[in-house]
Amino acid sequence: MSISFYQVSKTFYKTQLQQDIEHRLAAHREIIEEDFTSHTLHHVVVMERRGPESSFIIFDANFRVMDYSYPVDPERLIFYREWVSQVNELSQTQFVETIAHHIPHIWSAVPLKQNNVVVGYLFIDQDTGDFEQAKSKLLFISMIMALFSLLLSAIITIYLSKRWTDPLVKVRNSTREMAKGNFEVRLDAKGNDEIADLMKDTSSMAEQLKEYRDSRQQFLTNVSHDLRTPLTYMKAYAAILMEKTQLEKEAQEHATVIYQEAKRMERLVNDIFQLVKLDEGKYTIDFQEEDLVQLGKEILQKNKVEAENKTIQFTFSSSDPEIVAMVDRERFEQILLNLVTNAIRHTPENGTISLVIEQKPSIISITVHDTGEGIPNENLKHIWDRFYRVEKSRSTKHGGSGLGLAITKQLVALHNGEITVKSKVGEGTIFVIKLPNNMHI
Fold this sequence. Notes:
Blueprint: H1 2-34, H2 38-50, E1 55-60, E2 65-68, H3 74-84, E3 92-96, E4 105-114, E5 117-127, H4 129-179, H5 194-243, H6 249-279, E6 288-291, H7 292-302, H8 304-309, E7 313-318, E8 324-327, H9 329-345, E9 352-359, E10 363-370, H10 377-380, H11 404-414, E11 418-424, E12 428-436
């Protein structure tokens, strides 16, 4: 807009200047042609001297100077004659740069006629200094307009973008919190536009999800409590029946099955109860300095008998004889037990399970590697889901509840760490836990 304004204004001013000079010459020509005498010629020259400073010359038919407003340099007079000689019976006007990089001049000439015969020419050479000054002012005004427009548009853009994006950022952050399980989000919606509706709907969704989570947790808590008591009785009486030697062998076998299934159900109930506590944020972590090398050896020792029953070989290695970290011993022992027992469950006979603990400048890495069945790629992203079992390799015959890895991941997160998995069907699975090396820092 600023450039267009400048171009239009410059063209208009230039046209006005040209028309003004042509009208002056036309007026002079009418007067002279009515009374072609020296007195009239001199009168016209005097009028030009009183106007804007310019070189006004009256030529005869042979381009000799008859009169002039101001003396003219002979060399310049030659240029004037050459230019006027090209004028036909009509007037001619041209903007001319007489000196390079200098203010342009406007030259204009009209023929004088008597009885339709050209008897002379009126010529004017006027610099365009006023026009150039006006053009500079127009350029300056245009630049100011452009800067002002840019500044104004920038302010409006920032204002509108902030007004529009701030609520969207709040909605984005709220949805991220909701994805993490935090439904205590409230968005203050102002106005009646689409963004306000989105914020209201997001708040409503958070409330509904919170109600669903609370009701689910309450349900699981109640179920866990209600199942614990009958399971305790089932285990106790099954154990008594198993110890009675006078019972028939078939009855003892049935009692053994009841006892084993009761134990499995008890583990499932305990896992559910533990997940409920994790979801409610009631799971306390008591950080203490613990030697992970010693803890790792103890975990393998606890599972040694079960591994020997399947002729599975344990290997252990560490980068240092002692690697101390700030962990909750009971919870971290549960993490390693879950991974090791899971590896034993899914490693065939004569397989190998290795536990490697490495200390690095910023992290401590714990790796559990087995040579078991492996997990298909399409199932890897789901193994952290609750109650998820990979077909065949995670069947119920192994006794898994489908909650162990979900609990493990949450416990690792409570230790400010992360756990990753790599697996290949038929070759085995690798779980890697990375903890911050706070003791080293």
